[in-house]
Write a structure and sequence with these properties.
Number of helices: 4
Radius of gyration: 21 Å
Distance between the termini: 54 Å
Largest sheet: 4 strands, antiparallel
Oligomer: single chain
C-alpha cells in the first residue's frame, strides 16, 4: 500500500513539474497569432493595384457599421518576399487569403503553413475595416 502511495505521489509530482508554464509559445498557430497581435496599424499608401481593388470590394460588400467582424490586412515577409494576409474571421478557411506582392495567391500544404507561421516576419497591420469589437 505504501509503495502505491509513493508511486502516485511521484506521478503527481512529475505531472506538476511537466505542466510548468514558462511562457514559451509551443505551436506554430500560437507563434503566428502572437506576431499578428504585436502588429499595430501602419498606413500604407502605395498598395499594389490588385490589393486596392480587393479593398474596394470589401468596402462595397459590407457597410462599415454593420459588419460583424473586423477585416484586417497584414503585410509581412516570407521566403524573402513581401506577402499579404487578409484576416476575415467570417471565413472558415484561415489561410485562404494569403497573397504575394504580385497578387499571386499562396495555396498552403500543411508543412508550408507551419513554415509560414513560424518563419514569416515583420508583420504590419496595413488595413482595418469594420466597427466590430471582435477581430
Amino acid at each position: 500500500m505504501i509503495k502505491i502511495r509513493i508511486r502516485l505521489l511521484l506521478l503527481f509530482a512529475l505531472a506538476f513539474i511537466g505542466c510548468k508554464d514558462d511562457g514559451k509559445i509551443e505551436n506554430a498557430d500560437d507563434v503566428f497569432t502572437a506576431k499578428l497581435q504585436s502588429a499595430s496599424l501602419t498606413e500604407k499608401d502605395d498598395l499594389p493595384e490588385w490589393l486596392s481593388l480587393k479593398i474596394k470590394d470589401i468596402e462595397k460588400s459590407w457597410e462599415k457599421d454593420k459588419i460583424i467582424l473586423k477585416v484586417r490586412i497584414y503585410q509581412g515577409e516570407w521566403k524573402n518576399r513581401t506577402i499579404y494576409f487578409i484576416k476575415n474571421n467570417l471565413s472558415s478557411c484561415y489561410f485562404c487569403e494569403v497573397y504575394y506582392e504580385e497578387g499571386e495567391q499562396e495555396v498552403f500544404k500543411e508543412k508550408d503553413a507551419n513554415d509560414f507561421c513560424i518563419k514569416s516576419a515583420n508583420w504590419k497591420l496595413i488595413y482595418e475595416y469594420g466597427d466590430a469589437i471582435i477581430f
